[in-house]
User: What shape does this take?
Amino acid sequence: MRKARWVAAAAGVVLLVAGCSGAKDDKPGTSRSGSSAAPAEAGGSLDAAAATKEIADAATAAGFTEEPSEEDLPASVEKCGVSWQADVKKVADPQKSYDATLAALKQGGWKHARELKEKGSVITALDKGGWTLRARYIGRADTFLVIFFEATDNSAECEKAIDEELAKNKMS
Assistant: This one.
C-alpha cells in the first residue's frame, strides 16, 4: 500500500507538471537545481526542509493539524519532494482553512500556476524557487474529504531520480 500510494503520487506529480504547464519554468531568477540552498525569500532556491516548513506554517496558521503518515519517500527522491496531509476531522471549516492555506502560501511568494477543478475536487499548482506545490482538495466535507499539499523540486536531477524510481516500481 505504501509503495502504491507513493507511485500514484509521483505519477500525479509528473502528469500535473508535464500535462498542465505546457512549458518548463525557466524564468530568470528561479533555480532549477536540486541544491540545498536557503529558502526563496531572497530569490534563492528552496530545499525540501524549507518547502515543508512553508507548507506546515501556512496550513497550521489556517487551522489545520497534520495527519500522521507512515509513508516515506524512497531515499533516492526524498530531497526532491515533500508531502503534508491535513487532518480534516480536526478543523471546523476545511474549505476555509484550505483557502487560507493557499492565500498564506501566495503571500509567502508562491505564484499561482494553474488549477484543475473536477467533480468537487480541486488541484491548485503553485510555483516558487524551482519547486511546484500541488494543493489538493479531494471530495466533500460531508462525505469523504482528503486535503494534502505536495511540493516537488523541478530540477533535472530530481526529474531523473523520480523517473528512475517510477521505472523501478513499475517493474516490481
